[in-house]
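Our platform keeps sequence and structure together, in a single record for each protein. Such a record has a labelled line for the sequence and another for the backbone structure tokens. Nothing more is needed to write down the fold, since each code stands for a local backbone conformation. For reference, a complete record is included directly beneath this paragraph:
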Amino acid sequence: MATAAQFEGTKGSAGDLATGVSPRGLSEAEARIRFLAEGPNELARSKRRTPLRIAIEVVREPMLALLLGGGAVYLLLGDLQEALILLCFATLSIAITIIQEARTERVLEALRDLTSPRALVVRDGERRRVAGREVVHGDIVLLAEGDRVPADLLLDQSRDLQVDESLLTGESVPVRKVAAMPLDRTAKHRPGGDDVPAVFSGSLVVRGSGIGEVVATGARTEIGAIGQALTSLESEAPRLQMQTRHLVRLFALAGAVVSALAVLLYGWLRGGWLDGILAGVC
């Protein structure tokens, strides 16, 4: 079984590559031109929400706003203990939400990191390691067991090659790969199933080795399409959360009316407007 070290240590002749593939691969000059034209082999960065923006969205929730308002009133009245209790509960809720939302924002970052491993390519007739983001369309990539596929490849050689495509399909069982036939070069291949003559960016070689030609990089790969779908997807609150929020708003409106009446009656009848405000909030 060929390993990455054996691939890298062999300076290779035309006989090492499949028929129809240039034995020299791309030249460095041509690879540089394609890199400038096509851009790096990585997913586009999504616009991430900052912790401050997430906190503002959380504070807009009626119940949290009520807790913060009550804490502020207690603080103004000099009741530090009650103020700290309310503000601590509100701060804890905000902190938990920010942590959860920040983890969600990191999903795309992790997805992009998986699509940019180092790759063993043939350029100017020599095998060399390059950063995954520098792989370009037309590069010849050598794969061995344990490699992360850097781009979508059409296979020219396959030696007992099996690939884990669970990142793309959710299927944990490795799939078998075969070398492409002439008709396969014009067909569209998708991940999933055995005997597909292509491997896809982000998948993992679990057995065997192979040689393939890059047919898609970056956002044009299968995993890139997933990344684009995720970036264009607008997050929508679950139905239960939307119904709960609507119910909370109704109760908040009713509570605001009752509180306003309590403040007016307390202030009008007893003359203590600050005490009335406190009674209305509580």
